[in-house]
Amino acid sequence: EPGTECPICMEPVEDRMSYRTMVCPACKRAWFHRDCIQAQAMRTGVLCLHCPFCRDIREFLARMFIMGIRIPFRLPTWEDNDAFADLEERHSQCNARECLYPGGREQAEEED
Predict the structure, then answer these.
(1) What is the distance between the alpha carbons of residues 68 and 29, in angstroms, rounded to a whole number?
(2) Which ranges carry the RING-type domain (predicted)?
(3) How far is CA 7 from the centre of its chain?
(4) I need a labelling partner for 19 at 20 to 30 A (CA). Which of 35, 40, 65, 73 fits?
């Protein structure tokens, strides 16, 4: 359709498939630039790369390999250097106005 945008960079794509413009083989709705999907593949790796629209993995990966998209076999880059390690930390104090713990705020703190 006219005005179709790449879901990765949000820029217009060509109105037909070409070397630079690709389409998802599963949903046929996601049109994207070859450079955009290549960059996405380098960030996500083979374990997390999927269609930005329908989230298909199997058919999408197979077609990307066939089309020459290099997809590294590794964890996504956001898993590097424990980027989300602080999300695993537990909150150290209760900020609730009214404590709902059966034994009260003091007992809850003692059990930690």
Answers:
(1) 20
(2) 6-55
(3) 12
(4) 73
Give domain status of residue 59, yes or no.
Answer: yes
Range of the domain at 15: 5-67
Residue appearing with tokens 């059990």: 111
Residue/partner pairs of 99-108 with CB below 8 Å, 24 or more apart:
none
Per-residue pLDDT reduced to its tens digit, 56-85 = 999 999 999 999 999 999 888 877 676 666
Question: Would you say residue 108 lies in a domain?
Answer: no
- Placement of tokens 């290099």 in the chain: 70
DSSP class of residue 5 equals: B
Residue 58 lies in a domain: yes
Number of domains in the chain: 1
